[in-house]
Amino acid sequence: QVQLVESGGGLVQAGGSLRLSCTISRNIFSINVRGWYRQAPGKQRELVAAITSGGSTNYGASVKGRFTISRDNAKNTVYLQMNSLKPEDTAVYYCNAAKVLPAQRIDYWGQGTQVTVSS
């Protein structure tokens, strides 16, 4: 069974930083996209950042220039460095690993980690 284990969430003041980590319990053949999504109360889950196996990155508009996604393939781990945090970044952050194929997508999810930014 595949497990995505997240860590690094918590409470931080506005303007502060946090780093989230997500490790896959075992190497999964054909996982080609890793990413982070978030969901605030009453809102839909949204993409925060994603990184492909080739190293290409994609960011949600609200976090561009503040958040950075990176990966350590040897450790099966992806990181999300979050700087200049704002109260509106408060949400549950979910790690994602996906097999993205031409006609199919298979997603794996972590359990979520709470990030709270106080004003």
Structural features, described:
The strands form two sheets. Strands 2, 4, 5, 6, 9, 10 and 11 form a seven-stranded mixed beta sheet that branches. This protein has a four-stranded antiparallel beta sheet with strand order 1-3-8-7, with no helix packed on it. The protein has strands at residues 4-7, 10-13, 18-24, 33-39, 46-52, 57-59, 67-72, 77-82, 91-101, 104-109, 113-118. The chain is mainly beta and 119 residues long. The radius of gyration is 14 Å and the shape is globular. The protein contains no helices and eleven strands.
Strand content: over 45%
State the helicity in percent bands.
Answer: under 10%
Stretches where pLDDT falls below 50 for ≥5 residues? none
DSSP summary, beta strand count: 11
* Average pLDDT figure: 94
Question: Which structural class is indicated by helix and strand composition?
Answer: mainly beta
Largest sheet: 7 strands, mixed
**Secondary-structure element string:** EEEEEEEEEEE
User: What is the alpha-carbon Rg in Å?
Assistant: 14 Å
Q: What gap, in angstroms, lies between the N and C termini?
A: 40 Å
User: What overall geometry do the principal axes of the alpha carbons give?
Assistant: globular
Give the number of helices: 0
Keywords:
119 residues, mainly beta, seven-stranded mixed β-sheet, four-stranded antiparallel β-sheet, 56% strand, globular
